[in-house]
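User: what does the whole thing look like in 3D?
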Amino acid sequence: MLLVILFLFLGILIGSLLKSKETVINMTDKLIEWFIYIFLFFLGISVGANEEIAMNFLKLGIQALILTAGAIIGSVLASYFVYKKFFKA
Amino acid sequence: MKKSIIMLIFFLIGIIFGMKSLLGKFIGKVDISLYALYVLLFLVGIGIGGDNRIWKIVKNVNIKIFLVPLSVIIGTLLFVGPLSFFIPGISLRDSLAIVSGFGYYSLSSVLITQLRNETLGVIALLSNITREIVTLLLTPLMVKYFGKLAPIASGGATSMDITLPIITKFTGKEYAMISVFNGIILTLIVPFLITLILR
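Assistant: Here's the predicted 3D structure for the full assembly of 288 residues, as structure tokens:
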């Protein structure tokens, strides 16, 4: 999976070289958008065809909610600490 | 906001297709997705590398601005780590990977689906979408009780675009810059962190 990161780096490198070419960057954004639509469509298909997911959807939703709550509480508390210590004038 | 809805619609149409098992058998057999993932990350990289805003902000602001995304990462992982032991059916590692999406649900769900499986991908999708929605809804309250960095932290990677307008409205212009910075850094870190955790 290190290949994934390699591709990301390659992209960043090329992106910073193309920085002045705004049309290229805008086109990339559009491409990403469509890529993700198509990806989510395919993810939807495999989710819909997967009975295990369909049957456990509620459970998955609850797991997701607990994780979100934890993530938000944790980051808000940490940011509150940073805010009080470094930002509040 | 509009884009999020379009994404959801694509996902839902996909589910219906899958349930009716249209295309399903065909797609299950062909694994083009890994290559597609490489292309996607390459494109995401170009987007990040080509983003001018980050250099302008770094030049203009105090170094302490780095503390904001750092606190989001540390706070999220430190809190969710222990919490994961109380959630049945999901491991510590998988939990950490899911919350390392920091609200960037499209990329995190795609990555996690590829690196693990569809079930976890769906949890990642739901969890990170919720992060965005909760931030949109609770920004005023967060600012009131936990200070102006709170909604920025909660918004995570989305604080550079989707949640930026509401954050700016309740925290002011000077925090808008911090918000954009935070979002860009987290967006950049998401693919690294998820790949690292699930390696």
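In plain terms: The mean pLDDT of chain A is 86. Chain A is about 90% helix and 0% strand.
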